[in-house]
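Support request, please re-run this one:
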Amino acid sequence: MKIEQIYTGCLAQGAYYIESKGEVAIIDPLREVKPYIGKAQQNKATIKYIFETHFHADFVSGHVTLAKETGAPIVFGPNADTDFEAIIATDGQQFKLGEITIIAIHTPGHTMESTSYLLKDAEGNNHALFSGDTLFLGDVGRPDLAQKGANITQEELAGILYDSLRNKIMTLEDEVLVYPAHGAGSACGKNLSKETVGTIGEQKKTNYALRASMTKQEFIQEVTDGLLPPPVYFPANVKLNKEGYKDITEVLKTGTKALSPEAFEHLATESSALVLDVRHQDDFAKGHIPNAIFIGLDGGFAPWVGALIGDVKHPILLITPERREEEAVTRLSRVGFDNTLGYLQGGFSNWQHSGKGYDIVHTADANKLKSLLPYQPSIFDVRKEGEFTAERIPSAKHTPLSRINEFLNDFPKEKTFYIHCAGGYRSMIAASILKSRGIHNLVDIKGGFKAIKEVEIETTNHVCPSTIK
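Re-run finished. Output below.
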């Protein structure tokens, strides 16, 4: 028996390759399916089943394409309703895979179709649980993603999740391995661990949501408390996972079309496409196409695209580092953005050499900011609420990146102001958005809060009244 976790850091997502006696099951595959097919071929094995733990909201699964390529059936749990052929398993239904058995355990609560898959080894012992978004390490799935028309509240879903955890998962042996669908960084939970494999016993001891003494009402309160609104692209991804989508080869064919600066400029105007610059933030600061939005590939690329762009159908034109255009299109498609029209051939340097206009982002190091503090400069912190609450510059105003458009009227119209995040990635995204809105009187602090701490700028803790327990 072989179990391999295929983890994608950008999405904080775990897919699984399980093999026994030449038969393979794939759980929650990503959209580009060649790695799974290639692995099976290399092992002279056959993909027999494709298991989906639920209709994912944060990424587009590869189940439809993988089924088409291999002929393997797609398996969902009870309550799933798809527009394509699939096995809708009953609670407790068994699937033989070589010498092992995979059992569908209906664990609703994150969503109503959420299903975990229990693997029994050749001797019939419970070996591992593939828990999807029902149970994470350190957390459980958020219960506020009820599908449109479900007519159920997040409190009701949380109560159902409590029962699923207590009656279906916590009854398993402590040594059973837990393989969740996500780790730290995912928007599908609040308190996910950086670890990606654990055990039932460890989670009973360390996961706040599995406390033995916890009542259902306490569980509902704690699981729903402090939930931020889900990213706006989530419903679109659920729809694609339920109804199907274009083959990624079609998306790549269009998205990797090389465009001259003239063709790029014409298409941007004609299609009202978003110009998305995915280079490093330092390169973007030195020069970029006016009104381009920066979201760098070498960061939390796909989730930030989903959270900030939102409309998966919006046409996109890319400026990429050399030879990374296919990677950019692929990672966009993972979160449902299939309408990439092409990329700038020769990159930004080609745009410059063609004589076309460009813009820059003014930057300063943390020492420069320190020297300005006696003059009370306007400082804006775009980190998450937890980061800001933990430690901040006393005079800084909190304008989190995820809600930056809500604060446009708070930024000075003429006076120079300064923005920062933790390390420089998110503040450059914020800078690009503000500049696209006509706000140019900003300076980005290079290195972010890390650099601010290194030069010993005074900081403070701040606990908001609403967070005091």
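The chain has a mean pLDDT of 95. The longest helix spans residues 154-169.
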